[in-house]
Amino acid sequence: MKSTKKDSGQKTGKAGTLLQQLARSPEKLFSGSFRQQIAALCFRPTKNGSGIEILVVTSRESGRWVIPKGWPMKRKKPYEAAEIEAWQEAGVRGKVRKKPVGSYTYLKSLDDGDVVPCVVDIFQIEVDEIADDFKERGERVLAWVSPDEAARRVREIELKSLLVEFVPR
Questions:
Q1: Which residues of 117-138 are buried (b: 16+ CB within 10 A; e: fewer)?
Q2: Least enclosed by CB within 10 Å: which of 29, 60, 102, 123?
Q3: SS3 label, residue 144
Q4: For 12-20+32-165, which CATH class?
Q5: What's the pTM value of the predicted model, to 2 decimals?
């Protein structure tokens, strides 16, 4: 993550900027103005069948590791929106669980520079199809990694915990 030097000698990156913006308007955290998002926790069995691998992708804006996620979609159930995000962002399809397996919160930087807290519901997808060509191909890096490695790569604490403890249902 790129960081900039401050007069005080402290370094701050995009995360620091998000926190600073939120600190200027803390009512966002307490006014119930959390935005809802959905995510796909995509997994597959390892080649030797001894465990699972989890798909992580880079975000288009910051390049940080995330799981496929997005905003709710009109006329789509949340699990259907998670399926669509997984297909558009990573070119994967599979059996989706209709109930969330967990959730996490994070601070989203909007295009207009505003910062909003988001709650992300996570839907598991057992991947059985991987496409070579998909909507955001070339815009993201994809990696199939162990649950521990997935947890190391993502930034959000609640998501880290969910990844480490994830057991397919």
A1: bbebbbbbbbbeebeeebebee
A2: 60
A3: strand
A4: alpha beta
A5: 0.81
